[in-house]
Amino acid sequence: MNSLAISRLWTSKNIAHSNPILDFLVPALSFPPRSRRYASTTSSTANPSPSPLQDGPPKRRKPLSLEQRAFLDSALRVNQAGELAATLIYTAQTPPLLRSHPQLRSLMQHMHSQEAGHFSTFNALLARHRIRPTLMYPVWTVAATALGWGTAMLGREAAMACTEAVETEIGSHYNGQVRVLLGWMREMEEKGEEVGDELRELIGELKRIRDEELEHLDTAVGEDSREAKGWPVLNTVIRGGCRGAIWVSERV
Fold first, then answer.
1. Nearest CA to 81 among 227, 209, 246, 251?
2. C-beta atoms surrounding 178 within 10 Å
3. What is the pLDDT of residue 43?
4. For residue 163, is pLDDT > 50?
5. How far is CA 216 from CA 78, 149, 165, 223, in A?
6. Given a cut of 70, is residue 190 above it in pLDDT?
7. What is the mean pLDDT of residues 133-151?
8. Nearest-CA neighbor of 25 among 101, 95, 119?
């Protein structure tokens, strides 16, 4: 076992044993393979065998274009990086927040658990399609942890302002991806091509994750995010940072 694995194991055990109130802050930060090979969301280019119960000619299956593959490669990579950052933000926010606001434990656990689930989903998708993670992993890890801890130290309202700003950008980002994929699906259907199950499932997963992120946004506003001191500046700076991180992670 290498030193990094030993360090993670030691940290996880000590968080759970020394602070039972923080026992949910042990996300599974597993990393997918780094190979660049990409698998199409359609399983075959061959026409499916006709069914005796099928009316009309069978629908054709067409592989994704190079442009579509590049879009998915970029989208899934940045989504995974974003969910890593969200998990680390909540991990860093929770200890200082719960010291002064222990009543927030169930809320922080709920949001952290959902973000960790999103991260696991995109880890699996990157592994399945053999997409490398962003090379900015170390930078985003430090930045997300600093952002979470810093806003929590400013108080409950600032921590919630951070959530509001991040989820505003992430919700918009996922909406854009869903629109693109739905456009592909409509185009395939208009051409009489079969829409692969993987594409339908991906759209469904993106919608589900988007809705959970927007739930976090609504929760943050309900928890007085806009009462934070300097909220307009805080909101603008964090949203700008998110847009910059998305742009970089899509390309690097």
1. 246
2. 17
3. 41
4. yes
5. 19, 18, 11, 10
6. yes
7. 95
8. 95
Residues 133 and 127: their CA atoms lie apart, in Å, by: 10
> How many of the other CB atoms lie within 10 Å of CB of 1?
7
- 3-state SS of 70-86 is HHHHHHHHHHHHHHHHH
Task: Indicate the burial class of 71 (C-beta count within 10 angstroms; 0-12, 13-18, 19 or more).
Answer: middle
Q: Are 35 and 1 within 8 A, CB to CB?
A: no
Bridge partners of 60, per DSSP, are 193
Give the range with max mean pLDDT: 10-14, 57-61, 147-151: 147-151
In whole angstroms, what is the distance from residue 164 CA to residue 44 CA? Answer: 42
Residue 203 pLDDT greater than 50, yes or no:
yes
Assign 223 to helix, strand or coil.
Answer: coil
Alpha helices in the chain (DSSP H): 3-18, 66-100, 105-129, 137-153, 156-190, 197-222, 231-251
Percent of the chain predicted with pLDDT > 90: 65
Question: Tokens representing 30?
Answer: 């597993």
What confidence tens digit (pLDDT) does each residue in 63-113 have?
Answer: 778 888 899 999 999 999 999 999 999 999 999 999 999 999 999 999 999
What are 20's two structure tokens?
Answer: 């039972």
CB burial of residue 118 (10 Å; 0-12, 13-18, 19+): buried
Tell how far CA 176 is from the center of its chain.
14
